[in-house]
Amino acid sequence: MESQKKYDRTFSFEFFPPKTVDGISKLEATSQLLAELKPRFFSVTFGAGGSTRDRTYETIIDIRAKSGIDAAPHLSCISSTQENIGQMLAGYIEAGINRIVALRGDMPSGMVEAGEFRHANELVEFIRRETGDHFHIEVAAYPEFHPQASSPTRDIANFKRKVEAGANGAITQYFYNPDAYFSFIDSCEKNAIDIPVVPGIMPITNFHQLARFSDACGAEIPRWIRKRLQAFGEDTASIRSFGEDVVTGLCQRLLEQGAPGLHFYTMNRAEPSMKIWKSLNLSND
Ligand code: FAD
Fold first, then answer.
1. Which of the listed residues 40, 47, 211, 239 has the most CB atoms within 10 Å of its CB?
2. What region does 113 belong to: left with phi over 0, alpha with psi -120 to 50, or beta?
3. Which residues pair with 15 in a beta bridge?
4. Does pTM top 0.90 for this prediction?
5. Residue 76 Cα, ligand 1 centroid: separation in angstroms?
6. Could you read off the pLDDT of 111-140 as tens digits, one per residue?
7. Exposure of 43 by Cβ count < 10 A (0-12 exposed, 13-18 middle, 19+ buried)?
8. Is the CB–ligand 1 distance for residue 260 below 6 Å?
9. What does the alpha-carbon distance between residue 251 and residue 201 come to, in Å, rounded to a whole number?
10. Ligand 1 in reach of 80 Cβ (< 6 A)
11. Is the separation of the CB atoms in 23 and 276 below 8 Å?
């Protein structure tokens, strides 16, 4: 973990672009509350195949203006063209955005055309070629390895390609086993990869939703956590209380061992992340 200890801690919160007027006002309230914690930035996801292109842009502009917190759009390149990506980058530069989360994304179901980018390292290369050092670029990292990776060694080598292409930092897929993260950082150090790798944190509030996401993205819910959550059935209060203890304990261990911050997957809700934040006694003052 030595490589990680030299970096300043970065705390950030991730949102998805809301679809409805109600969703927009809920996100506004959420971002106002989380802004009080003075995170380094908010980020907003980008739907597969560009399905949220305009909403991601509008959400970024809106939450930055209303909260005063730096905002970073996610940008995924699968099934896109250089022209398309170039236009979005130009729009963000014009709007004064200088941080971006660069991803490959996943092919929308039913689509077969892969577009002009195959992997995220090509997107990072393109952003650097077209816009120089304008953007601080974050990329994705997978302590439990990406589900499509042919081997851990290849996955680390592919992660390194993104760093060599110009990524400044990484945010991980969520995980509940801190040893997976420590071991991933160890592999990074052995492979001369030296950028801050901030753990992605998914608060636990709803077992069925979490199980569905985890199956889709390949994140593992350890058996003991899954069994405990299943046993609570529909007892939401117990699920939340147990989830808060587990995730707070995870964050505590990560920070104590030198993780350079935390990135919360908020699902557009302030309360679960705020509770963990308060239990950890975190402060950005
Ligand atoms: P890559 O880095 O391209 O890796 C994908 C796979 O290809 C891996 O198995 C890797 O080992 C392999 N690979 C990488 N480069 C090469 C290469 N050059 N040659 C051969 N193989 C290679 N998805 C969205 O649609 N929208 C979002 O907003 C979004 N936000 C995310 C935020 C975070 C922090 C994380 C962790 C994930 C996010 N995702 C998002 C999900 C992400 O798009 C998927 O996990 C996707 O499957 C991989 O994206 P990537 O950028 O990691 O791809």
1. 239
2. beta
3. 44
4. yes
5. 8
6. 666 689 999 999 999 999 999 999 999 999
7. buried
8. no
9. 8
10. no
11. no
Q: Which tokens in the block code for residue 70?
A: 């730096």
| Structural domains in the chain, sorted by start | 2-280 (3.20.20.220)
CB 141 within 8 Å of CB 159: yes
Evaluate whether 199 touches 262 at the Cβ level (below 8 Å). yes
Verify whether residue 130 is a known catalytic residue.
Answer: no
Residue 89, burial from CB neighbour count under 10 angstroms (0-12, 13-18, 19+): buried
Q: SS3 for 41?
A: strand
Nearest to 111 by CA among 79, 82, 76: 79
The residue contributing the CA closest to ligand 1 atom 32 is 140
Residue type, 61: I
Task: Give Dmax (Cα) for the chain.
Answer: 52
Backbone torsions φ then ψ of 110, nearest 5 degrees: 90, -15
Q: For residue range 236-249, list pLDDT tens digits in order.
A: 999 999 999 999 99
